[in-house]
């Protein structure tokens, strides 16, 4: 490993999250920031009441959700974090490329050691070549259940949006509320080896709305609009575990951006957004005499798991100015027509609508040739029952659930991987032998193999700087086929192909879109299907690259 200068190192994570982390050891030309914007994050406990449950939750500056960060493309952000809670904490700036600033990315034990109680840490990074909606969140255990907020990147001054200028811009964070302490929920799941208990409600900007017991009009987010005006909704799925359908009754939405990348505008009445994804949509209020003065905005889950999930619907309100929606009227609002919770076809059709803008100003620089191919079989496996609770484990057949990629489940290091690289101390921390494909191929979406146990390790893939990479992510049915959201740290990627069943290179490659595929940082591997992504490994610094989101209560941080 000592001779790895000039390479990336990509590492798989996590027994829960599956992380595949990156290191680039080359320098790039310096970048000049347009302006430095400074924020202070005071992480402290605050009392919050939802669903008649009052509890103390971690917050930033006493706010739930946390404060909005606003920058322009080219600006430098400096955020000083002071940790005044009893947990370790770090923060991730979700979707920021972190060019030459990998130490500011935030994943605990990957790019930094956690910020201990009473400690502080300064994150400093420049926003390079990005504009749109991103977000920030805690990146330690399940603290991001309440530690999250929007990160809005405006274009440089004098540069217009490639769509009509909206009358107003509104961040809309879709989250979850747990009556229990989320840290206790994940702790119990890790002890038992089963899936964690589900959330009690979905939320709009922290508010669950009128569809839940003991939730009043004061707990309902209201978006007030003027007739004929157009609004830019900056949607963020900050939920821990849930893919969500979204819609506004009697209104059509126009999608214009995904994960801070412009897309060819398209209309939709129902959207689906995965955990970690962002989406900018235009909503135009009726010009004259709408059929009502108040309309429901709703989210509901999409899932195909055989396990339990939060099968509820949360509601916010679109109110035309002059309306005053009473508590009784809130509960009788007509909901938007959303697909059934398991409508995979609707999800596939919506996802297929995304295309990069691919204009002269915003080109789609899709790698046409590939230097390194990877095939990663992702999904759930099992670990033997060790240290059982009450003599048993709650995974299948008295085992413990374990997420894996190519049958490798990540072992969290005790030394930050970036620190190990800086000190050139790799032995005992990581191994550069992660498999580029499954050791033993099988019918990934068919009958599962008899042995479902996974292996463990902190294993990485070395990549030379500027390598063009293709990764095919294949869902498996080992312990039940289901979709898997994944996020790429430090890079955007192009989604060049997707399909159902087992990936077939001889046929599926010919169907790739290499002209205007959508550019994202978070994607979902479809249920019993596959997705192919491409990117150029051109970002210096040790950055986590691919990891599973906390998904369907089985893959844990």
Automatic annotation (TrEMBL):
GO cellular component, as recorded: apoplast
Record keywords: Apoplast, Copper, Lignin degradation, Metal-binding, Oxidoreductase, Repeat, Secreted, Signal
Signal peptide span: 1-34
Places the protein is found: Secreted, Extracellular space, Apoplast
Coiled-coil region: none
Catalytic reaction equation(s): 4 hydroquinone + O2 = 4 benzosemiquinone + 2 H2O
Signal as UniProt keyword: yes
Keyword Chaperone listed: no
Record SUPFAM superfamilies: Cupredoxins
Cofactor comment: Binds 4 Cu cations per monomer.
Plastocyanin-like domain mapped to chain residues: 43-156, 169-323, 435-541
GO MF annotation list: copper ion binding; hydroquinone:oxygen oxidoreductase activity
InterPro entries named among the record's database cross-references: Cu-oxidase-like_N (IPR011707), Cu-oxidase_2nd (IPR001117), Cu-oxidase_C (IPR011706), Cu-oxidase_fam (IPR045087), Cupredoxin (IPR008972), CuRO_1_LCC (IPR034288), CuRO_2_LCC (IPR034285), Laccase (IPR017761)
Record-linked Pfam families: Cu-oxidase (PF00394), Cu-oxidase_2 (PF07731), Cu-oxidase_3 (PF07732)
CDD domains per record: CuRO_1_LCC_plant, CuRO_2_LCC_plant
UniProt-listed Enzyme Commission number(s): 1.10.3.2
Cofactor(s) needed for function: Cu cation
GO BP, one annotated term: lignin catabolic process
Role played: Lignin degradation and detoxification of lignin-derived products.
UniProt family annotation: Belongs to the multicopper oxidase family.
Protein name, entry field: Laccase
Species whose genome carries this gene: Oryza barthii
Lineage: Eukaryota, Viridiplantae, Streptophyta, Embryophyta, Tracheophyta
């Amino acid at each position: 490993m000592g001779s790895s200068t000039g390479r990336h190192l990509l590492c798989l994570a996590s027994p829960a999250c599956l992380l595949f982390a990156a290191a680039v050891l080359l320098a790039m030309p310096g970048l000049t920031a347009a302006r430095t914007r400074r924020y202070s994050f005071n992480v402290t406990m605050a009392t919050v009441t939802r669903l008649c449950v009052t509890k103390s939750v971690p917050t930033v500056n006493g706010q739930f959700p946390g404060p909005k960060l606003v920058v322009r493309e080219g600006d430098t952000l400096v955020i000083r974090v002071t940790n005044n809670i009893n947990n370790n904490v770090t923060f991730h700036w979700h979707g920021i490329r972190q060019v030459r600033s990998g130490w500011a990315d935030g994943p605990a034990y990957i790019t930094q050691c956690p910020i201990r109680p009473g400690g502080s840490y300064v994150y400093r990074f420049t926003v390079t070549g990005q504009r749109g909606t991103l977000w920030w969140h805690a990146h330690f255990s399940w603290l991001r259940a309440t530690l999250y907020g929007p990160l809005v990147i405006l274009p440089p001054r004098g540069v217009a949006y490639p769509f009509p200028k909206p009358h107003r811009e509104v961040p809309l964070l879709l989250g979850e509320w747990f009556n229990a302490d989320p840290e206790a929920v994940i702790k119990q799941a890790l002890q038992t080896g089963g899936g964690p208990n589900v959330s009690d409600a979905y939320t709009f900007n922290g508010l669950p709305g009128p569809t839940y017991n003991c939730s009043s009009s004061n707990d309902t987010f209201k978006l007030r609009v003027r007739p004929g005006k157009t609004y830019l909704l900056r949607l963020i799925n900050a939920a821990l575990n849930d893919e969500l359908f979204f819609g506004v009754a009697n209104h059509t939405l126009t999608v214009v951006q995904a994960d801070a990348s412009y897309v060819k505008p398209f209309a939709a009445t129902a959207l689906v957004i995965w955990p970690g994804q962002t989406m900018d949509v235009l909503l135009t209020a009726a010009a004259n005499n709408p059929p009502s003065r108040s309309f429901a905005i709703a989210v509901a889950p999409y899932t195909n798991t055989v396990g339990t999930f939060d099968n509820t619907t949360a509601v916010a309100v679109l109110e035309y100015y002059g309306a005053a929606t009473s508590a009784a009227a809130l509960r009788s609002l007509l909901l938007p027509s959303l697909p059934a919770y398991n409508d995979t076809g609707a999800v596939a059709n919506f996802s297929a609508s995304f295309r990069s803008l691919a204009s002269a100003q915003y080109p789609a620089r899709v790698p046409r040739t590939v230097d390194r191919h990877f095939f990663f079989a992702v999904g759930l496996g099992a670990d033997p029952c060790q240290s059982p609770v009450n003599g048993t484990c709650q995974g299948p057949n008295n085992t413990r659930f374990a997420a894996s990629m190519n049958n490798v489940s990540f072992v969290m290091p005790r030394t930050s991987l970036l620190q190990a690289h800086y000190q050139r101390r790799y032995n005992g921390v990581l191994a550069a032998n992660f498999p580029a494909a499954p050791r033993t191929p099988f019918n990934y979406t068919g009958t599962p193999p008899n042995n479902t146990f996974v292996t463990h390790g902190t294993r990485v893939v070395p990549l030379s700087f500027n390598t063009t990479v293709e990764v095919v992510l294949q869902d498996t049915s080992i312990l039940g086929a289901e979709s898997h959201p994944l996020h790429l740290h430090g890079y955007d990627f192009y989604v060049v192909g997707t399909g159902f069943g087992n990936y077939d290179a001889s046929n599926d490659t010919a169907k790739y879109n290499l002209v205007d595929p959508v550019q994202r940082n978070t994607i979902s591997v479809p249920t019993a299907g596959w997705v192919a992504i491409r990117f150029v490994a051109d970002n210096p610094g040790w950055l986590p690259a691919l990891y599973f989101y906390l998904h369907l209560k089985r893959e844990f941080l």
